[in-house]
Write a structure and sequence with these properties.
The structure is a single chain. The chain is α/β, with parallel strands linked by helices. The protein folds into 2 domains: 1-61, 2,3-Dihydroxybiphenyl 1,2-Dioxygenase, domain 1, CATH 3.10.180.10; 70-139, Roll (2,3-Dihydroxybiphenyl 1,2-Dioxygenase, domain 1). It is built from 2 helices and 8 strands; from the N terminus they run E-H-E-E-E-E-H-E-E-E. A 4-stranded mixed sheet has the order 1-4-3-2, covered by helices on one side. It has a 4-stranded mixed sheet with strand order 5-8-7-6, with helices on one face. A hairpin with a 6-residue loop joins strand 6 and strand 7. It is globular and about 50 Å long.
Length: 139
């Protein structure tokens, strides 16, 4: 039996990344710091998904450059209302790279350049201003 545990992304500013994922609805579920290895692991999950589908943020204490976050691929989360979620993200300054024109899917990027897909279960009817909004970047 195989069970999905988590996806790991390396982050340079854990606080900014945690704030970003909190906008989607994830919460920190546990944290582990290793002084000898000079890193911190922070696990985030959606309510009720703890231990099932988590994101592991790896923060290496020594400065490193992590460019090309797109080479990771993306994380995907189902949301209750894609339009409300995207509006909340935009209001917080997050760029919507692929708006939810079809009422089903949108792409955003984390502060570390990780592509995040938002999916609406079953889809919603197209709604303005989203239906006519152009893509604003790579996703």
């Amino acid at each position: 039996m195989t069970k999905y545990l988590h996806s790991m992304i390396r982050v340079t500013d854990p606080d900014a990344t945690i704030r970003f994922f909190e906008l989607i609805g994830l919460k920190e579920v546990r944290r582990y710091s290793n002084e000898q290895g000079r890193f911190t692991l922070i696990f985030l999950a959606a309510p009720g998904q703890e231990g099932l589908a988590e994101v592991e943020l790896t923060h290496n204490w020594d400065p490193e450059d992590y460019d090309g976050g797109r080479n990771f691929g993306h994380l995907a989360y189902q949301v209750e209302d894609i339009y409300e979620t995207c509006q909340r993200l935009m209001d917080a300054g997050v760029t919507i790279n692929r708006p939810p024109r079809d009422g089903r899917m949108a792409f955003i990027k984390s502060p570390d350049g990780i592509s995040v897909e938002l999916l609406q279960d079953g889809g919603l009817p197209p709604q303005e201003p989203w239906a006519s909004m152009p893509n604003t970047g790579n996703w």
